[in-house]
Amino acid sequence: MLLQQIINGLTLGATYALIALGYTMVYGIIQLINFAHGDIYMIGAFIGVAAVAIFHQNFFLTLATAMLACVILGVTIERVAYRPLRRAPRLNLLITTIGVSIFLETFMTVLKGPQPTGFPTVLKNVTLRVGELEFSSIQLVILLVSLVLMVGLQIIIKYTKIGKAMRAASEDYDTASLMGININRVISFTFAIGSALAAAGGVLVGIYFNSVSPYMGVTAGLKAFVAAVLGGIGNIPGAMLGGLLLGLAEVFGVAAGFSTYKDAIAFTLLIIILLVRPTGLLGRPIQRKV
């Protein structure tokens, strides 16, 4: 029973981690909480539905199509809605992210209606057994795909030129610009990567729960934000850890009989962690000159 719940929790937590990475990367560079990020996850899920239902794509093509489409969407939103306000008061930019979020939700509601849409079958769901442990082939795919994407992100951040530029910009935005780093390019790339990961999460969740809806990004986005803060906002390994811990906490809470309070578990956990460690599990205090 314990191992079964751990598998379920890691499966759910992996999807939270994919979304949380987008929050933490954007915040790490421009100190912006992009509340529209959860809705990019939702758009990715709907694009996955269209890719299977209309174009009859297989799983990997569906995943790639959703990720590519959301890369374009994320970069477009950053360029059109956020970049002109980058030097404006931070509250203006924050309100803009909420406006973009409402726009995307309303657009999909008008386009598809408010009712949930089933995700067409793209993966055969087979029950796998290892001893007394049972898990589905879809859970295995979610864990493997999430692992590959997270490892790939770490490789990009640590060993590529654009990754080094991202790390430099997160340390000191203005100094990095003075040293010749193209900040606009770095920020656009950050939005692109974050949007791609969110789209992957949307497709995986749509397949797992066999349902997508225009408002699926609201709760998932808030929980992913909690995961990012839990691990230490701005810290990439922290976002991964926070997502996995949040998934485990939610699944074990439901298994313990608190299914009514499933959504409250995330925020209760956040409050407890912030009371004990305000910077998050892997975050570090930031010293600012006054």
Explain what you see.
The protein contains eleven helices and two strands; from the N terminus they run ααααββααααααα. It is mainly alpha-helical. The chain has a domain of 199 residues. Strands 1-2 form a two-stranded antiparallel ribbon. The chain starts with a helix and ends in a 14-residue tail after the last helix. The mean pLDDT is 92. This is Amino acid/amide ABC transporter membrane protein 1, HAAT family (TC 3.A.1.4.-). GO terms for molecular function: L-isoleucine transmembrane transporter activity; L-leucine transmembrane transporter activity; L-phenylalanine transmembrane transporter activity; L-valine transmembrane transporter activity. It is found in: Cell membrane. Belongs to the binding-protein-dependent transport system permease family. LivHM subfamily.
Percent range for helical residues? over 70%
Described by strand count, sense and barrel closure, the largest sheet is: 2 strands, antiparallel
Low-pLDDT windows of residues: none
C-alpha geometry: globular
Multimeric organization: single chain
**Helix count from the secondary structure assignment:** 11
First-to-last CA distance: 53 Å
What number is the mean pLDDT?
Answer: 92
SS-based structural class? mainly alpha
* Helix and strand element order: HHHHEEHHHHHHH
Strand content: under 5%
Main location: membrane
Membrane topology: Multi-pass membrane protein
Transmembrane segments: 6-26, 38-55, 61-81, 93-111, 138-157, 186-209, 264-283
Family: Belongs to the binding-protein-dependent transport system permease family. LivHM subfamily.
